[in-house]
Amino acid sequence: MTGAGKPAADRAQPSPQNPWESVPLADYEAHMALSQVGQLQALSALTKRQLASHPVRTVCILGVAGGNGLAHIGPGIQKVYGIDVSQAYLDRCAARYAALGDRLVLQRADLSDPRVDLPDAELFIANLLVEYIGIPTFAGHIARRRPRYLSCVLQQNAGEAFVSASPYAEAFAGISSIHTDIDAQELTAALAAAGMEHTGTDRLSLPNGKQLIMLEYTRK
Ligand SMILES: C[S@@+](CC[C@H](N)C(=O)[O-])C[C@H]1O[C@@H](n2cnc3c(N)ncnc32)[C@H](O)[C@@H]1O
């Protein structure tokens, strides 16, 4: 694990193994922020709701990327863990949110590996992450950690390509090999077997006709 602000040069850089490690954060964020895509802003707003609606002191964000949504971490949160496969994203996240000090703990991990040991946190957030590791592996992580609350956001593509057309779309060519559309009911069934009860669903329409679906779960 690395604390916020630790220089990248202090750590060995692994060779890219996951396609996300080849997507520059600037391209990812520029694509997601385009007005016709509108996802970066929508995901930040949803993270704000996820944090506000759960009375917790510890949070773990799976697929934290460059820290979209971390601006909404309030003083009541004592520890925020951020997990991602991309060390470059985590370095940028640490630099952006250095003000969180040792309340922010970032860990490089490939969550497609079912053996990854996740930190203990009351609330787990996984926004647009399950699409890249699949339901069985994700539910396996949750079954082992059994957080008090879990909130997930999935993208519903309405028959469209999961990457919207944009000048940056080429940067995402590699990730299509690991992306799968996730069925919300299948996810909920797997999480029920993992000890998590479905407590709510919310939908947000995006400018490009796609939808973000937010699913809430509480430990049984
Ligand atoms: C579509 S982005 C979502 C970013 C962020 N959650 C948000 O809402 O803005 C997916 C993120 O998951 C990370 N990711 C994808 N596969 C992963 C894996 N196997 N292990 C860890 N992180 C992964 C990517 O590096 C990327 O940061």
Which helices and strands appear, and what pairs or packs with what?
Layout: E1 2-3, H1 25-33, H2 39-52, E2 58-62, E3 79-84, H3 87-96, E4 104-108, E5 123-127, H4 130-133, H5 135-145, E6 149-156, H6 184-193, E7 196-205, E8 211-219
Parallel strand pairs: 2-3, 2-5, 3-4, 5-6
Antiparallel strand pairs: 1-4, 6-8, 7-8
The structure holds S-adenosylmethionine.
If you had to describe this structure to a student in words, what would you say it looks like?
Helix content is 26%, strand content 23%. α3 (87-96) links the parallel β3 and β4. Mean pLDDT is 90; it is low at 1-12. The protein has one domain (2-7, 39-219): Rossmann fold (3-Layer(aba) Sandwich), CATH 3.40.50.150. It is globular. The chain is an alpha/beta fold and 220 residues long. It is built from 6 helices and 8 strands. The protein has helices at 25-33, 39-52, 87-96, 130-133, 135-145, 184-193; strands spanning 2-3, 58-62, 79-84, 104-108, 123-127, 149-156, 196-205, 211-219. The chain binds S-adenosylmethionine.
Quick structural gist:
The chain is of the alpha/beta class and 220 residues long. It has helices at residues 25-33, 39-52, 87-96, 130-133, 135-145, 184-193, and strands spanning 2-3, 58-62, 79-84, 104-108, 123-127, 149-156, 196-205, 211-219. The two termini are 30 Å apart.
Beta percentage is: 15-25%
Tally of separate helices: 6
Intertermini distance: 30 Å
Here the CATH topology equals Rossmann fold
* SSE arrangement, N to C: EHHEEHEEHHEHEE
Alpha-carbon Rg, integer: 16 Å
Main sheet: strands, sense, barrel: 8 strands, mixed
Record the strand order, biggest sheet: 1-4-3-2-5-6-8-7
Based on the structure given, which CATH architecture is correct?
3-Layer(aba) Sandwich
The CATH C-level name is Alpha Beta
* Gross morphology: globular
Q: Which oligomeric form is depicted?
A: single chain
Summing up helix and strand content along with how strands pair, one would put the structural category as alpha/beta
**Secondary structure: number of strands:** 8
Number of domains: 1
Mean pLDDT: 90
Uncertain spans, ≥5 residues at pLDDT below 50? 1-12
